[in-house]
What does this fold into?
Amino acid sequence: MSLDFNDPAVWITALVIVLVIVVGIVLLVATRRKRKTAELRRRFGSEYDLCLREDGSRRKAEARLLARVRRMERLKIRSLTPAELDRYRADWEMLQSRFVDHPRAAVTEADDLVIALMQTRGFPVGDFDQRAADLSVDHARLVQSYRSANAIILRVGANQSTTEELRTAMIHYRAMLDELLEVKTPIEQRTLV
It folds into this structure.
């Protein structure tokens, strides 16, 4: 059978086939983009929305978040040794006990302890924004708390924080420490047994 390229039906059929292929490609690209966006939203939570607001474009925000993931993949984040784990737990207990008498000093030391813990695990500990960005990759639910605690720390230096704010900062640091120490909650421990 030979095709008669002068026949309009052949051209219409070819055009329909090309259109179906183009529509299929467009749908495939759109589906992949939606899947990537959904995955980044799930992984980064509120940090995704923050990047979206700051960058003003979904494409730029997602590129920045993917750059964070690539950066963290190159780092050597490690678990703590049992001795390191015991030391950080003991340091935290000491800080908590000093909070009642010296809340500002305890919060400042809690911030220092979290930074030291991050460094021990292999996180770069440059400026705060980079630490928060690095944490967002695998600990997204903690980043907003970390930002809140950091804002309180900045007010501590200017003697502008209330005792309630300091208590809130300690709660945030406790949550961070627990996660960075890889402490499991009792429910998680039971499901692992």
